[in-house]
Design goal:
Elements lengths: L1 H16 L1 H27 L8 H12 L7 H16 L18 H24 L10 H10 L11 H19 L13 H23 L4 E4 L18 E4 L6 H25 L1 H6 L3 H11 L23 H25 L1
Antiparallel strand pairs: 1-2
Helix pairs in contact: 3-4, 4-5, 4-7, 4-9, 5-6, 5-8, 5-9, 6-7, 8-9, 8-12, 9-11, 9-12, 11-12
């Protein structure tokens, strides 16, 4: 009882001498300092990585590993570099953060998701097509592991954490790259063929087409259902309205925009890697310049964004619509990719 009596006396003295006010000021000062620190880190982390030279990155990587630079090395090394930047850019991987400022940010996490989708698509194409001579050939075990690692949940923060799984995916790709450049190792192959390139381009075409639609829907538009067009005997599981309005919610405009920025950032590097590894195929098909034009169409998507907000001005209004500008670049690139795929098949 003596302890509680002393505690009550101490509390009474604190209130009577005004020490509570001093304590409150101290707590307020700490909270303000913490908020300022969070804001500074949030500002520093809210930046997108710059473009890098895929040829230089590949040469540096193969030299460090002590292996030859062979067809396929640039594509694999570029994929690894994209994944490494995803994990080690300022702030690291933010999507799975559970503490500020990461948990309060959404621009960079959406950018990360755009890059991640391209990593997954390339890992799957490497496993299923680029490393196999035909459909009945054996899969490369290292690429099987790499694909599985990159498909791990991107929001897991522990047991296991996402960063660890993606780092294991990079290691699996590194093992494949080492075997690819080893003259004494024949288990790893990369087949730079036109049909393999078309397979990956069809993946890119699908992703860009979806993004273009979502970006264009920033202002809303009337859309007819053309799902069954061209086939009078076609059916679908559930009936849909013939005429509907498609519009991206205003709360998701910046999410879609930054996902598009991440997607095009990754695709730009992969296209430049493809230009190196598939140069002979592209030249024989007279399609090299077509690929280079696609790269030109996508480069403006990485221009500096000067506005602090993603604006959603309508149509020909006085306020810019960043989503429509991005959709324009992506649509042009997507149309060129479709033409390139047709050229690779028929040229």
């Amino acid at each position: 009882m003596a302890f509680f009596d002393k505690l009550k006396t101490k509390i009474s003295d604190t209130f009577s001498t005004g020490e509570v006010g001093v304590g409150t000021k101290s707590v307020t000062s700490v909270l303000i300092a913490l908020l300022l620190l969070i804001s500074i880190f949030g500002f520093l982390w809210d930046t997108e990585p710059d473009l890098f030279n895929v040829v230089s990155a590949t040469s540096e990587m193969t030299n460090d590993l002590g292996v030859r630079n062979v067809p396929g090395s640039t594509t694999v090394a570029t994929t690894m570099t994209l994944a490494d930047i995803l994990l080690h850019k300022p702030g690291g991987f933010l999507t799975n953060d559970i503490a500020p400022p990461g948990i309060l940010m959404d621009n960079v996490p959406n950018w990360e998701f755009g890059v991640l989708v391209q990593l997954r698509d390339m890992a799957r194409t490497l496993r299923n097509n680029l490393s196999r001579s035909q459909s009945q050939s054996t899969e490369d075990e290292g690429l099987v592991a790499a694909e599985n690692q990159f498909y791990f949940d991107n929001s897991s923060w522990m047991l296991p954490e996402t960063e660890t799984e993606y780092a294991n995916g990079i290691k699996a790709l590194e093992d494949y790259l080492i075997r690819l450049g080893d003259d004494n190792e024949q288990s790893a192959q990369f087949y730079a063929r036109a049909d393999n390139l078309r397979t990956w381009l069809s993946e890119v075409e699908t992703r860009l087409g979806s993004l273009s639609q979502r970006l264009s829907a920033s202002v809303g538009k009337r859309q007819l259902d053309v799902s069954l067009a061209g086939d009078p005997s076609a059916v679908q599981s559930t009936a849909t309205q013939m005429d509907s309005e498609v519009k991206t919610p205003w709360t998701e405009l910046d999410d879609v925009f930054y996902e598009a920025r991440g997607t095009t950032w990754a695709i730009l590097h992969l296209l430049k890697a493809i230009e190196v590894d598939f140069r002979d195929v592209l030249q024989k098909k007279n399609a090299l310049v077509s690929l280079q034009q696609i790269i030109r169409e996508l480069e403006p998507t990485q221009d500096t964004l000067w506005s602090p907000l993603i604006l959603n001005g309508g149509g020909f209004g006085i306020v810019a619509n960043h989503s429509l500008v991005m959709a324009s670049h992506i649509s042009r690139a997507n149309a060129a990719i479709i033409d390139l795929g047709r050229l690779l098949q028929e040229g």
